[in-house]
Design goal:
9 strands; BirA Bifunctional Protein, domain 2; 340 residues; 2 domains; alpha+beta; binds phenylalanine
């Protein structure tokens, strides 16, 4: 017959050496298994013993069970502690380790160019004035001297919601809003903003684009003031070597009216492929504010006069960065946008 305390010592030693919980489970079955466990087997032949011997053996077996159970649970928690300690070491996060660089967005090239234009003109005392993109027919056309049925309306083929309501086709309606709001000249404002025209998207035009309008109303303004302002703006944005020229044109809201061009930055005005051998690049329209437009804005043209201009921001950005297709600005292709 096996001695219970010897079996206990053997079990406790084996449990102490176990390295995994699977091993512990196996030992538990081996020693404490209900029928064929080695501790239960100690009781084999107990019926042949005297009552005193029986009692003594029963007690010894119970003690052995208790001791082995205690050893098992002790070793179990020890193994768990070790596992956690190992984890802490192998899976530890070093918070001082520099992380992977984050992809940060940046300001869209059109916004950059718009801000540069604003900064230059603000330095001359112009203030930014914003207007609605949904306009009435009166602000978009009538008030700007573009009467119904006038052939010039074709220049601004527009998106209508109703006969009276449309998406503005240019930023010029903000001239009228500004005069009505400020009332008393002098007025020096610029109005950057989105415009809409019924054009199919192609390399040089889109059905939506942005303009910057400028309006000055004061006493005794001359065309020289207008041209000087445009020259200052263009040279501030593109460099002192750039020249500005104007060509007679027609807008119902200015008289006289002009288109203004900038000398080509690639050939310096000599003529090259990028300016189609003209030496000049078209930028926008300008002129002296028509007296009727001042009147429509509530300003007396006998006392005050003004000049105005308007040009596309996309066009300015194309000239600045030699971009040859306006659609690129709106395609959200990071390979393009990340260059700026
Ligand atoms: N509004 C005109 C356009 O969109 C541009 C312009 C503005 C011309 C101001 C003259 C004066 O074409």
């Amino acid at each position: 017959m096996t001695d219970p305390s010897a079996l206990t010592a053997e079990a406790v030693a084996a449990i102490g050496k176990a390295q995994t919980s699977a091993e512990l489970e196996r030992l538990e079955v081996e020693y404490l298994g209900r029928k064929s466990g080695r501790v239960s087997k100690l009781l084999e032949g107990i019926d042949k013993l005297s009552p005193e011997e029986r009692a003594a053996l029963g007690k010894a077996v119970n003690e052995s069970k208790r001791a082995i159970e205690e050893a098992l649970s002790g070793r179990r928690s020890q193994l768990e502690e070790n596992r956690l300690a190992d984890l802490a070491e192998t899976e530890a996060i070093d918070v001082t380790f520099p992380g992977p660089p984050l992809d940060r967005g940046h300001v869209h090239v059109l916004t950059q160019v718009r801000r540069q234009i604003e900064t230059v003109l603000e330095s001359l005392g112009y203030q930014v004035e914003l207007g609605p993109e949904v306009e009435t027919e009166w602000y978009n056309f009538e008030a700007l001297n573009i009467t119904a049925g006038h052939p010039a309306r074709e220049m601004w083929d527009s998106f209508y919601f109703s006969p009276e309501l449309l998406l503005r086709a240019h930023t010029s309606p903000v001239q009228i809003h500004a005069m009505q709001r400020i009332k008393e000249p002098p007025i020096y404002i610029i109005t950057p903003g989105r415009c809409y025209r019924r054009d199919a998207p192609e390399a040089t035009r889109l059905p939506y684009f942005s303009q910057v309008e400028g309006l000055a109303v004061d006493k005794g303004l001359t065309f020289g003031d207008l041209k000087g302002t445009l020259l200052y703006m263009i040279q501030s944005l593109y460099g002192r070597e750039r020249k500005v020229r104007v060509r007679p044109s027609f807008f119902p809201f200015t008289e006289p009216s002009f288109e203004f061009d900038v000398s080509c930055g690639i050939c310096g005005g000599m003529g090259c492929k990028s300016c189609r051998h003209k030496g000049w690049l078209e930028v926008g329209g300008c002129g002296m504010v028509h007296p009727q437009v001042l009147r429509n804005g509530g300003i007396d043209p006998a006392q005050w006069n003004g000049y105005a201009w308007g040009f596309g921001i996309e066009r300015m950005a194309m000239l600045k960065h030699d971009v040859d297709d306006i659609r690129l600005f709106y395609e959200s292709d990071l390979r393009f946008l990340e260059q700026f």
